[in-house]
Each structure stands twice: as C-alpha cells, then as structure tokens.
Amino acid sequence: MIVPRGVRLGYGVGSFCTATFGAVPGLLLLYYMTNFLAVPAWLAGVVVAAPKIWDLVVNPLVGRWSDRTVSRMGPRRPWMLAGACTLPLAFAALFAGPPLTGTPAAIYVGVVFLLAATAYALFEVPYKAMPAEMTGDYHERTALLQWRMVFIGAATVISGVVAPAIVNSQGEGGTLSSYRLMGVTIAVVMLASMLGAFFGTARAPMTGAPDPDGGTLWSQFAVVRSNPPYMWLLALGCTQFLAVGVMLAAAPYFASYVLGDPKATSTLFAALIGPILLTMPLWVRLSKRYEKRGAMLLAGLLFGGGTAAATATPLLGALYAHLMLFVVGVGFAGVQLLQFSMLADVIALDAASTGKRRAGVFTGLWTAIESAVSSFGALTFGAVLSMGGFVSSDPGRPVVQPDSAITAVLLGQTAVPAFIIFLAVLMTFRYRLTAEHVLHDPQQPSASGEIRPAAP
C-alpha cells in the first residue's frame, strides 16, 4: 500500500515535536542547571534522568490505551491532540528560570520535567505507532520514514542551531531571560508541529483491525518479551540512545571548554544534522541493496568512527571537529532511519501473524526505554564531569575549570559515546529480520534466524 504524499508530509511534520523535545533538554537542560541555577553536576544529571523512570509506566499505558481506542478520529489521533494541548505549556515552564538555586531549583525542574514527559507521552507513543499501520509494504515503510527523518533533520536544526542561538542572543553563554525566550519559542514550534500532524494524518490509511479486548497490559508485555526480533532491536536501540544522550549533554560543554566558543554549539549541530537532510535517499537505496541490517552496520561504523576521531580535536582544531561531526552525522542519519524502519517491520510482522493491534504496546515500551536510556546519557556525562572535578557555578560567580575537567568534557563528547556505538555495531550482527521474513513468512524469526510461531 502506497501512502499518499500529503499524508507522508502530514505525518512527517510531527517530528518537529519529537525531535525538539528529545534534543533541546538533552542539549541545554544540564548546562542550564549547572551554570545558571547552581545545581551540582551529579544532582543535575539525576534530575534529567529521574523523570524518565516515570516513562516506563506512562508510555506503555498510553500505548495500550491507544490500541484499545475506538473513535471516529481513529485510535491514535485523539491522544496526539491531548499531547498538543498540554506539552507546550509544560515545556515553556521548564526553562522559566525561577528565582531558585541549588536543590530547590533542582526540585522545580524535576517536577516540571515530569509533567512535560507525561504530556509528551500522550503524543509520541501513538505517533510512533502509526507507520506500522499505514502500510503493509516492507520498503514503503522505509520510504515513509524517510520523510519523517527529513523533518527530524529540520527540527534538529531548530534544536541544535536556533535554540542555542536564542540562548546566546543576549550575551555569550546566555542569560536566564534568553532561556525563557528559547523555551517559549520552542513551545510554539511544538504546538504547530503537533497540530500539523493531527490534521495531516486525518486521512491516513490504516491496516489491521482494532483489538479492544486483547488482554491485560501485563499479558501484552509477555507477548513483547516473547518476540526475539523486537527484544534484540530494543537492546540495539538502547546502546544507540545512550550514546546520543551522552553526546547531546556534552555538546555545549565541548563548545565552551574544548573549542573555547559557546556559540560553536550551533555550528557543531549544523555539521551533525546537515547529512540528515542530504543523505536520506542514499540510505533508502543502501537499505534495499544491502538489506537494512547491512546498511545499519555501515551507519554505525561511520557514527562511531567519526566520534572516536574527534578525540584529536585539541590537536587539530575546531575545523577538524566540525568535519568529524559531519561524518558522525552521515552515520547518525542512517542509524535513525533504519532503527525506526526496523521497528515498524517488527510491529507489522506481529500484526500479520496474530491479527491483533498491538502497535501501541510495542511503541509504548520502546519510547519509554528510549527516553529513560537517553536521559541516562546526561546522567553518565554528569558522572564523567564529577570525576573530572568540574565546578558548578552561576553567572554571578564564574569559575575557572581545572585541566582534569576539560579532559573529562573531551572524553565525554568523544571516547565514551564512541565505545558505546561500537558495542551497538557488534550487536547489529545478531539482528536477523529480513525482507524475506517480513514479505513471505507470517511467523516470527528469532535473533538467531530460527522461525518460531507467534505467541498466542
């Protein structure tokens, strides 16, 4: 089934929300707390990570609720609308800059981030469930998600270039006022994106039948656990999420303390995201020629290789760092596209073999773990900073960081995520779901290639 171009565009525009909510807090929230609210680095890392534990509860619940929803708007869109009505307000409050510092400021940010994560789940979980239900064609899902990735690239430009530019518009390094402005601006972008996706998918085709009485949430988790391709893909995705989370958290520190230019955060992100806008057709062709697993291996090697090579930045300078980030971006583009295309394949195969709508359960668990693991990237980088002796501050009391802290920033941006990505490359060899399985066999292959009947 070919998805109409208008629906592809309508679906893709929702990625302005999913990309910005994932990237902006990951990029700026830790730095905002340590350098403007005087929150210790270890506590700031905990604050970024802690609300994500809630995602492990709420995301699967939203997924299951959307699986069981029967309405004239379809099963997914009512929940997307609910997210559109709540997330922008919570996001603007996240960077509101209350007159608090230290632990009280950390508590405020943690509570608001928890509310924002809940609102985000209402939109994200049903949104990510839709591609597996829009078409039953193996390669059409990749083509559909290509559009989504283009919008992710554009959205990440806003996150990584425009958001830091707004922050720095009132002085190098930003001010509390500029963070407030950035929060409101990004909230408006999210609102427009979510409403665009809601209206743009009104005529989206749907495959599969509703399953409003398909058992309890826990019984559905048992089905998920019994699906080897899904579990192996989830483990692979977790390593990739963690590496990206570490790099996002490290980026403003890398720009400020290694390159000596806080505004370089924007240009580094431009180098990283440019390939997403340029290389999507290439990755679609590579996935058809070498299978999705082969293309994923190549993407992971480029991602990890560029990240590891960036360790030489102090010796070779800022231009070299930007070139390596461009290489990373080429690999990152492929990883993102293929990861979600593989996920849609797994969900579609489950629906074909069982006749039940369970996309919400699969994507709910996926997004919950994605969110939690990504937030542990900030926690991991916060721990690296603490081990390096990084000193927290506020604008009224600037400090000079010790050399050990600068080294920690460098390794946190390069060596640590590179090691994690190379682990993901090794894990990719174990993924066995191919076009032959999806197109010709309604049974589920195990990670080792063994075909097993679908769980009842």
Outline the low-pLDDT stretches: 441-456
> What is the H-and-E element order?
HHHHHHHHHHHHHHHHEE
What's the total count of β strands? 2
Instruction: Choose one word for the global shape.
Output: globular
Account of the protein in words:
Keywords: Membrane, Transmembrane, Transmembrane helix. It comes from Nonomuraea recticatena. This is MFS transporter. InterPro entries: MFS_2, MFS_trans_sf. It holds the Pfam family MFS_2. The chain is mainly α and 456 residues long. The protein contains 16 helices and two strands. A two-stranded antiparallel ribbon has the order 1-2. Strand 1 and strand 2 form a beta hairpin. The longest helix has 46 residues, at 264-309. The protein starts with a helix and ends with a strand.
Question: What is the gist of this entry?
Answer:
It contains 16 helices and two strands. It is mostly helical.
Key attributes of the depicted protein:
456 residues; mainly alpha; two-stranded antiparallel sheet; 16 helices; 2 strands; 1% strand; globular; disordered C terminus; MFS transporter; transmembrane; MFS_2; membrane; transmembrane helix
Question: How is the topology of this model organized?
Answer:
Elements: H1 5-12, H2 15-36, H3 41-68, H4 77-94, H5 102-134, H6 138-167, H7 176-200, H8 217-225, H9 228-258, H10 264-309, H11 313-316, H12 318-354, H13 359-387, H14 403-413, H15 415-428, H16 435-440, E1 444-445, E2 451-452
Antiparallel strand pairs: 1-2
Helix pairs in contact: 1-6, 1-7, 2-3, 2-6, 2-7, 2-9, 3-5, 3-13, 4-5, 4-7, 5-12, 5-13, 6-7, 6-10, 6-12, 9-12, 9-13, 9-14, 9-15, 10-12, 10-15, 13-14
